[in-house]
Amino acid sequence: MRIDLHTHSTASDGTDTPAELVRNAAAAGLDVVALTDHDTVRGHAEAIAALPDGLTLVTGAELSCRIDGVSLHLLAYLFDPDEPELARERELVRDDRVPRARTMVGRLQALGVPIEWERVARIAGDGSVGRPHIATALVELGVVETVSDAFTPEWLANGGRAYAEKHELDPFDAIRLVKAAGGVTVFAHPLAVKRGEVVPESSIAKLAAAGLDGIEVDHMDHDEPTRARLRGLARELGLLTTGSSDYHGTRKTVALGECTTDPEIYGEITRRATGAFPVPGAGGPRPV
């Protein structure tokens, strides 16, 4: 089985619609794909309706959190999307995205970048506006060559010149809320140092003690020594280890299935979940 547990659609900051994403996942030879848009589940219904035969969808979301001043992302899988407390927190995070993005546009303008809010809004479309949309605008304007080049201290990285904070969950609260909704939690790309400051291992240990289920080890932003270090940490803390593409369509160079999760780990995630269940595809023929 080929299992990719971290992807994004146009419901947040990817470039594939949810329907396109599941069709592309099947075409890439995946057996299981998780749709984990930022702080939203809006893409799930469309993805389920278009799910090809032979592909299983894991519903989820990537929750924006912060601990001791450091941002982190928590992948939440197979939770009840209608659980009211978790739904309310996701809405608070989403509602803060537009004013935050407008603030960053203003800071870029103050730095002499000829960027307009209308351009960013066009790029975001119906998705939850975020830094990747602003980064895409910087690429269009020729300020940087790639989206990744915008995520530096010079521009949009955490603490960068144009960075602005947003409402984020306390990760201990997030773990509690996801568990109460029957879901499973995995710390996304925990040592992606190129993105900015990362959470210390001591904090990961505290999150594990609070009920964190796993850490994302195999990820494009982790080199081999980092992956080995994380596997050792996972063994020490009794955490599951996952691998994922963090696919964003054409917004990033990573391909669907570039990193994958072991089937036994996937099985354990599904065993632990009680809020929702993986959805087997029956929406059409699998691409050949």
How is this structure best described in words?
The chain is an alpha/beta fold and 288 residues long. The protein is built from 11 helices and 8 strands. Strands 1, 2, 3, 4, 5, 6, 7 and 8 form an 8-stranded mixed sheet that branches. Strand 1, helix 1 and strand 2 form a beta-alpha-beta unit. Helix 1 crosses helix 2 and helix 5 crosses helix 6. It is globular and about 50 Å long.
- Strand proportion, as a percent range, falls in 15-25%
Uncertain regions spanning at least 5 consecutive residues? 284-288
Give the overall average pLDDT: 94
State the secondary-structure class: alpha/beta
Q: Report the oligomer.
A: single chain
**Total strand segments:** 8
Distance between the termini: 17 Å
Overall body shape: globular
Largest sheet: 8 strands, mixed
- N to C succession of SSEs: EHEHEEHHHHHHEHEHEHE
Number of helices: 11
User: Helical content, roughly?
Assistant: 25-40%
Task: Supply Rg.
Answer: 18 Å
